[in-house]
């Protein structure tokens, strides 16, 4: 046997951790840290970018943000973005989103938006598992209806392909995670008012796994038109379905009724839900839907039940699909006329008190449980969505890194 | 901001209502702030006392039209708040279109003529974009176009079944 020096062999010492344990530890670390650890070694890099690792990591962090058992103790976070991006560019001439605590809206950090929108204004369509869906506010030209999927934590985004419809009318969106397939879907509903004879809304669905849009029919017998007072609020995803407020023409007398329309993300079927009793009879200025601690919430803003002043009334559907379970949980009185900009999962209500001849505009954050109010120092309305750091789409095809 | 103060007054402390009477003698009790948007009536209101007991006659407007005028006046005022046209004009216009989708061609033209007759600027701003979009009129067409023979021709063409797919 030769005594020539052999190249040193890196040997694992007996008390080193096994691969399984190392990966288990990595799945519990924040997304930003995990991204950095991709450069530690090839084994780590290939493990981190597997779908299994990504979904395990997500499950570990999603539990912390799981509000289904009513634990909305406000340690979740939100991300917010101003409506008019052009007005808010930072020193590098990029528009910025802010990550903040969902109860207090106290700022945590800022994130630059790595892409632009043709009209200079965009809204957050939805947020699932740390993946954001942003759409241009939209204009008359089809090519202006630009949509991006973006995960700020891993610095990747993707622009969606163009619509499969021949034309787009007035559009409403929804963004959802399809848990059965570990996939993401974007729903676009396009309405064409003023057409005679009237034509129903056209619906298409984008699936990330197929990277394409596809028309979807609405099998409901009645003539449904999706109509919403708050086009810039995300459609809530509750019990695996997206929800919008709609106008339905029903019966032989062709009565017009407002209802909630839901789209089941798995079966791609539409269903209807009635609003809470008595909700629509009050004089109201604004009506919309939101998700509150995992349940469907219905909010109206209108005249106060007492003389003078206004109030927000908030109903929550305790048991999904059971109409009797609509429960009027909160009434939030307000002195000034205001428009709601956001209602977070833990029950913070962000309102825009409007400018009048005597008073300047201001933004007020109200905790619906304690009714505590606090002024919020921003200059223009925002879009708000819940947010978490995640590795979603780290393994995605055709994502752009920046 | 006249519009915002209008809606502020509409829903806050002032609950004073004024009675309007349509050409066919129907009575409507309307909040003062909404009535103040009616140019033709405003002069009358500013120069009269004891308004609560008089019914203001609106001779050219039928009850069915007046009811809709009041309804859309309120809607347009609240839409001004939720989607201010100063910053979100095209969203404002498209939502107005959605709201007005309930009106068929004849009734939306009736509405715009009533808004013109009653001099309700807020309502004209709300309805005109939908009229232009629905009938394919250029942006330069103001409300007086609606009375022209050319406009009548456009409405007539749209109304005939042979023109399905035409229009906007």
Automatic annotation (TrEMBL), chain A:
Entry superkingdom: Eukaryota
InterPro entries from the UniProt entry: F-box-assoc_dom_typ3 (IPR013187), F-box-assoc_interact_dom (IPR017451), F-box-like_dom_sf (IPR036047), F-box_dom (IPR001810), Gal_Oxase/kelch_b-propeller (IPR011043), SCF_F-box_component (IPR050796)
Pfam families named among the record's database cross-references: F-box, FBA_3
Limits of the F-box domain: 17-57
CDD domains assigned: F-box_AtFBW1-like
Protein name: F-box domain-containing protein
Native source organism of the sequence: Castanea mollissima (Chinese chestnut)
TrEMBL record, chain B:
Keyword GTP-binding (UniProt): no
Residue stretches making up the SKP1 component POZ domain: 16-75
Sorted UniProt keywords: Ubl conjugation pathway
InterPro entries (UniProt xref): SKP1 (IPR016897), SKP1-like (IPR001232), SKP1/BTB/POZ_sf (IPR011333), Skp1_comp_POZ (IPR016073)
Pathway: Protein modification; protein ubiquitination
Family, as annotated: Belongs to the SKP1 family.
Name of the protein: SKP1 component POZ domain-containing protein
Organism: Castanea mollissima (Chinese chestnut)
Taxonomic path: Eukaryota, Viridiplantae, Streptophyta, Embryophyta, Tracheophyta
């Amino acid at each position: 046997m030769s005594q020539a020096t052999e190249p040193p062999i890196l040997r694992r010492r007996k008390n080193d951790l096994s691969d399984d344990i190392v990966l288990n530890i990595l799945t519990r670390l924040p997304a930003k840290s995990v991204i950095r650890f991709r450069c530690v070694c090839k084994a780590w890099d290939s493990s981190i970018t597997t779908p299994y690792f990504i979904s395990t990591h997500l499950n570990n962090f999603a539990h912390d943000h799981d509000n289904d058992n009513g634990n909305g103790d406000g340690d979740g976070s939100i991300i917010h973005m101003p409506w008019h991006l052009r007005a808010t560019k930072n020193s590098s001439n990029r528009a910025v989103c802010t990550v903040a605590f969902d109860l207090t809206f106290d700022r945590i950090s800022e994130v630059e938006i790595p892409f632009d929108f043709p009209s200079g204004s965009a809204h957050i369509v939805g947020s699932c598992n740390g993946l954001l869906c942003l759409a241009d506010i939209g204009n008359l030209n089809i090519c202006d209806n630009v949509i991006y999927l973006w995960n700020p934590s891993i610095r990747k985004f993707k622009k969606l392909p163009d619509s499969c419809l021949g034309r787009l009318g007035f559009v409403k969106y929804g963004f959802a995670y399809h848990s059965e397939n570990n996939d993401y879907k974007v729903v676009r509903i396009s309405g064409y008012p003023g057409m005679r004879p009237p034509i129903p809304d056209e619906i298409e669905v984008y699936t990330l796994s197929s990277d394409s849009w596809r028309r979807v029919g609405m099998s409901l017998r009645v003539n449904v038109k999706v109509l919403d007072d708050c086009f810039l609020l995300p459609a809530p995803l509750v019990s695996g379905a997206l929800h919008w407020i709609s106008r339905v023409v029903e019966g032989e007398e062709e009565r017009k009724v407002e209802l909630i329309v839901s789209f089941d993300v798995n079966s791609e079927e539409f269903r209807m839900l009635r609003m809470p009793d008595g909700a629509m009879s009050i004089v109201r200025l604004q009506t919309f839907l939101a998700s509150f601690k995992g349940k469907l919430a219905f909010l109206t803003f209108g005249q106060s039940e007492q003389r003078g002043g206004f109030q927000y009334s908030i109903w929550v559907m305790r048991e999904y699909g059971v109409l009797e379970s609509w429960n009027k949980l909160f009434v939030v009185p307000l002195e000034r006329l205001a428009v709601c900009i956001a209602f977070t999962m833990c029950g913070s209500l962000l309102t825009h008190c409007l400018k009048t001849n005597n008073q300047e505009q201001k933004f007020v954050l109200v905790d619906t449980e304690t009714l505590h109010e606090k002024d919020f120092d921003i200059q223009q309305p925002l879009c708000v969505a819940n947010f978490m750091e995640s590795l979603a789409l780290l393994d995605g095809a055709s994502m752009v890194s920046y | 901001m006249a519009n915002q103060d209008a809606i502020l007054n509409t829903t806050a402390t002032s609950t004073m209502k004024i009675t309007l009477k349509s050409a066919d003698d129907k009575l409507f009790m309307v909040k003062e702030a909404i009535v103040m948007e009616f140019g033709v009536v405003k002069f009358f209101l500013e120069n009269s006392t004891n308004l609560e007991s008089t019914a203001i006659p609106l001779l050219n407007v039928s009850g069915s039209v007046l009811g809709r005028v009041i309804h859309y006046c309120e809607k347009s005022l609240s839409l001004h708040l939720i989607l201010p046209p100063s910053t979100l004009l095209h969203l404002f216009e498209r939502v107005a279109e959605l709201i007005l989708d309930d009106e068929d061609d004849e009734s939306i033209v009736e509405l715009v003529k009533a808004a013109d007759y009653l001099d309700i600027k807020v309502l004209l701003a709300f309805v005109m974009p939908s009229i232009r979009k629905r009938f394919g009129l250029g942006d330069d067409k103001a409300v007086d176009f609606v009375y022209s023979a050319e406009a009548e021709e456009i409405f007539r063409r749209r109304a005939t079944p042979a023109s399905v797919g035409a229009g906007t």
